[in-house]
Amino acid sequence: MTIYRVVLPFIEVRFIAMFGTEKTITLKTEDIMRPFDVPKRDEVNEQNKKIFDDLKSKLGFVPNIYATYAYSDNGLGRYLSFANGKTSLNNKEKEVVNLIVSQVNGCTYCQAAHTALGKMNGFTEEQTIQLRTGEAPFNAKFDALVKLAKTVAENSGKVTDEVLENFFAAGYTKENLVDVIINVGEKATTNYLHNVTKIPVDFPEAPSIEEFKQAS
User: Does 128 share its domain with 168?
Assistant: First the structure.
């Protein structure tokens, strides 16, 4: 007989062993697998099959988080159109936003993915960690950008005058402001999807901010 009793933030599992001995195992809820497998190509609709093929030809694989969007017949296409839309932000600026938003939202998948993408776009690993802390001491313009994006993500868009003034003083425009907010929303969508589904991360794990701070 198996008895499950939920005691947040833990799950206590009590069971009677074969010979009548009661045993208790306590697991953190975050360690319990969610009921989400990563959809395979033959499990998605034709539209998503084509997107899978396109992703594989461009990236060499279909990232698990993109495959997870394919639970929805239209979700993957809608998301990619949103994420890949034209913007006034360059690739490095987009990664500044992606890194801090993923940190604010606690998305381990996107922290890992955007650490890799950040390095591909010219950031060092140390700089990606600094951006995840909400600072860019190596670049004044990126520092203003990351502080704005962090404030937007943490406070549902309620930014202080100082943060906004610093953003504009760094050389950014009102067009850039709108595109930053769009970028925050786009990345939050994927953060939330992974935080709910907890599908496996198929990128190298992002470095620990705590270990970085201790080593500094």
Answer: yes
